[in-house]
Amino acid sequence: MKILVTGGLGYIGSHTAIELSKDYETVIVDNLINSNISTLKGINKIGFSKIIFEKLDLCNLNDVKSLFKKHPNIEGVIHFAALKNVSESVKDPLSYYQNNIISLLNLLSEINERKMKINFIFSSSCAVYGQSENLPISENEIKKPALSPYGNTKQICEDILTDFSKINSKFNVVSLRYFNPIGAHESGEIGELPKEEPQNLVPYITQSAAKIRGKLTIFGNNYNTPDGTCIRDYIHVVDLAKAHTCALNYLLDNKGVNNEFFNIGTGKGNSVLEIINSFEKVTGKKVVYKIGPRRPGDITAAYADNEKALKYLHWKPNYSLEDALLSAWNWEKNYRKT
Ligand code: NAD
Ligand code: WQD
After folding, report:
1. pLDDT tens string for the chain (338 positions)?
2. Using CA positions, which residue lies closest to atom 25 of ligand 1?
3. Which residue ranges have their beta carbon within 6 Å of ligand 2?
4. Which of 53, 148, 183, 232 could covalently link to 236 via disulfide, CB atoms 3.0 to 4.6 Å apart?
5. Residues 12, 240: contact at Cβ < 8 Å?
6. Bridge-based pairing state of the strands 231-232 and 270-271
7. Comparing C-alpha atoms, which of 45, 20, 81, 35 is closest to residue 193?
């Protein structure tokens, strides 16, 4: 069976492609807007079978048409391709709406036109919950307005998929709402490789420990949490990648899935200071930090109720927080010396 992985040279897509290559013929497409071609080398080194790569922009409908013409036997699509920088989306909302929505519409219009039978997995985000006050956050949480244009694109794409699946019985879809993916493949061959200064906590910590960046700034220590810093649900990227193969099996076993939502997180929350302390403990590296002001738009705490994924996807996270932090550091070290 042939599976298309859009955005497959990115952080989560590359780890998922490795998992898929155990059982499926895997085709990656990516336009490299936020990834590096060197990732393909890493993927082919550790993949279980040869992975095909097509460089193209999903916002270009002709490119999408040529892709499906070349690979008419695609039966599954995992759609990672998107822009994902929250603060950039506030400054440049049009690029985010343009890229994240048009890329999805182009894929769907081709699937529709070709009358393809497709199992589709959408990369959604805990960002769809906006400022949720209930913890842990369950899939039934009433969606609040998204806190950024980026988060709004995820809400809009989920709605597009629901509406499309309702009128197309050959289109089976789930949306996985990821919490905070961290870590890297155990080989150290692929990992998180932000093109610009990292916005997320763990890549900032690893780059700061590797002396690529200066001191880490903790964005606020006066939140209503035990140590004053924000709490998030950090999930190992390999566990997250495995959730996609479980979701694919779920779609293969069930027909008429009109966009089922699943939280993908560990179900546990850790504070920023706990992440720093664990990182120091497992790596022996010191994280130099200062306390700064709160980052606009940050919520105090968010962690997943993951019971639905455990029950219906037969998935469970296997790695610990320490495993994830150590793998992130091993990747950073490996990448910097090459
Ligand atoms: P990433 O930026 O590393 O990967 C996305 C990939 O998509 C990149 O390689 C980029 O070059 C490619 N891409 C973007 N637009 C494209 C287009 N128009 N045509 C072709 N390729 C395109 O991001 P990631 O962290 O791997 O995230 C993957 C998905 O998961 C995204 O949809 C993101 O919104 C979602 N997500 C990520 C996180 C996170 O914290 N990393 C959390 C929740 C959801
Ligand atoms: C984690 C914690 C920061 C950097 C983002 C997106 C969300 C989803 C996951 C895509 C927060 C603190 C961070 C730093 C810090 N992505 N921090 N200093 O904000 O939970 O979620 O990624 O869908 O939509 O918003 O993740 O890693 O940016 O921050 O103190 O230099 O670390 O304040 O409390 P976040 P993050």
Report:
1. 999 999 999 999 999 999 999 999 999 999 999 999 999 999 999 999 999 999 999 999 999 999 999 999 999 999 999 999 999 999 999 999 999 999 999 999 999 999 999 999 999 999 999 888 899 999 999 888 999 999 999 999 999 999 999 999 999 999 999 999 999 999 999 999 998 999 999 999 999 999 999 999 999 999 999 999 999 999 999 999 999 999 999 999 998 999 999 999 999 999 999 999 999 999 999 999 999 999 998 999 999 999 999 999 999 999 999 999 999 999 999 999 85
2. 11
3. 84, 86, 125, 127, 151, 180, 199-201, 204, 216-219, 230, 232, 272, 295, 298
4. 183
5. yes
6. antiparallel
7. 35
| Cα diameter, the chain | 56
Which domains does the chain possess?
2-183+235-264 (3.40.50.720), 201-232+267-304+318-333 (3.90.25.10)
Rounded-to-integer distance, Cα 106 and Cα 224, Å = 44
Distance 262 CA to ligand 1 centre (A): 18
> Which atom of ligand 1 is nearest the CA belonging to 9?
9
pTM beyond 0.90, yes or no: yes
Ligand 2 pocket test, pick from 34, 123, 200 with the greatest ligand atom count within 8 Å of Cβ, gives: 200
Closest ligand to C-alpha of residue 272 is 2
